[in-house]
């Protein structure tokens, strides 16, 4: 009975929020470098190799709601030897993202295609500018049959909140863009920074359903500095500032990698200001990278979730296709 009352209260709370706005949530990952399509379109192709394929899964607040926030993404990227100049190249990416949250199964599915162009300022690719553009098709969905309100339980009349919830389901095209810069400062240090803007189209008012923004315009600013202490240990401080509507997230991370020949182990700590401590792990084996993260809630929400914010697991593989060497055959006529 206590659990039923809690679920009922949560549903009523969510519906009351929807009566103000049907703005959808947006994807975010603690290991945001694993899924660059959600961070900055210009970061597509930022790897040494020909192809990159992988996925990532996040589960959040599952011990608070009977059904928590679940996000997953599958992605593929490719670097192409195409450019206006010798030291330029293009990258393309394709991703399928999905998220679902809460007892009402509020969620969205995104199919996105990304094109990035990279301009190296020197022959050794020490300084590279990147620009990216991403086009997406977003489908929002929910299950209003799961809502439990006074009208639905008593059968007295049509519930206007549930009718409003039904308008959440819709489809929208979207456009995202970003800039990036990577610099090899010296043989020990690699600096990266960038800026991404998401939902140019989806941030417009959804006049058809008389709601506010389909997705609020989101800005991501990020930077990292990877420093090789020696041949065995490297350190990488990271910073991510994300803003959407009235919400602002600032995440600070430091990840250390311990290298053993063709293997590596990541250990990292982070802090999402006012929200959670982040614990990051990773494993590198040849062309495979496996990542994991755990968020420990330190905000007032810890009263309800016992500090368990969420966890992530992701993996990707880099495939390098070496071009076949061109061999010129010379036929020598023997002397007779």
Strand-residue proportion: over 45%
Principal-axes geometry comes out as globular
CATH superfamily membership, which one?
monomeric porin ompg
Largest beta-sheet characterization: 14 strands, antiparallel, barrel
Indicate the percent of residues in helices: under 10%
According to DSSP, the number of beta strands is 14
Distance between the termini: 104 Å
User: What is the CATH third-level topology name?
Assistant: Porin
Our count of helices gives: 4
- Low-confidence parts lasting 5 or more residues at pLDDT below 50? 1-23, 207-211
Topology:
Layout: H1 2-18, E1 51-60, E2 69-80, E3 88-101, E4 106-120, E5 127-141, H2 150-154, H3 160-166, E6 170-184, E7 189-198, E8 218-228, E9 233-244, E10 247-260, E11 263-272, E12 276-285, E13 288-297, H4 302-305, E14 308-319
Antiparallel strand pairs: 1-2, 1-14, 2-3, 3-4, 4-5, 5-6, 6-7, 7-8, 8-9, 9-10, 10-11, 11-12, 12-13, 13-14
Describe the structure concisely.
The chain has 336 residues and is mainly beta. It has helices spanning 2-18, 150-154, 160-166, 302-305; strands spanning 51-60, 69-80, 88-101, 106-120, 127-141, 170-184, 189-198, 218-228, 233-244, 247-260, 263-272, 276-285, 288-297, 308-319. The chain has one domain (2-319): Porin (Beta Barrel).
């Amino acid at each position: 009975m206590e659990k039923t009352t809690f679920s009922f209260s949560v549903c009523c709370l969510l519906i009351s929020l929807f009566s103000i706005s049907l703005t959808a949530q947006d994807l975010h990952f603690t290991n945001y470098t694993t899924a660059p399509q959600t961070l900055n379109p210009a970061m597509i192709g930022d790897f040494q190799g020909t192809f990159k394929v992988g996925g990532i899964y996040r589960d959040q607040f599952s011990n608070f709601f009977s059904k928590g926030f679940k996000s997953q993404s599958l992605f593929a990227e490719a670097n192409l030897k195409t450019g206006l100049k010798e030291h330029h190249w293009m990258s393309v990416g394709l991703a399928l993202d999905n998220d679902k949250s809460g007892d009402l199964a509020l969620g969205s599915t995104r199919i996105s295609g990304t094109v990035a162009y990279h301009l190296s300022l020197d022959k050794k690719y020490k300084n590279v500018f990147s620009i990216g553009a991403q086009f997406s098709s977003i489908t929002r969905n929910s299950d209003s049959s799961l809502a439990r309100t006074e009208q639905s339980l008593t059968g007295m009349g049509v519930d206007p909140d549930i009718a409003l919830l039904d308008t959440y389901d819709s489809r929208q095209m979207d456009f995202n863009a970003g800039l990036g810069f990577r610099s090899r400062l010296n043989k020990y240090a690699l600096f990266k920074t960038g800026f991404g803007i998401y939902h140019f189209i989806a941030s417009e008012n959804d006049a058809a359903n008389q709601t506010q923004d389909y997705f609020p315009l989101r800005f991501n600013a990020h930077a990292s500095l990877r420093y090789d202490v020696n041949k065995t240990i490297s350190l990488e401080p990271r910073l991510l500032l994300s803003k959407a509507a009235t919400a602002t997230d600032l995440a600070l991370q430091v990840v250390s990698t311990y290298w053993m020949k063709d293997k590596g182990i990541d250990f990292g700590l982070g802090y999402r200001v006012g929200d959670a401590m982040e614990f990051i792990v990773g494993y590198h084996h040849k062309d495979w990278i496996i990542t994991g993260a755990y968020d420990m809630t330190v905000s007032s929400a810890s009263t309800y979730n016992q500090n368990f914010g969420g966890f992530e697991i992701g993996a990707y593989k880099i495939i390098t296709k070496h071009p076949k060497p061109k061999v010129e055959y010379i036929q020598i006529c023997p002397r007779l």
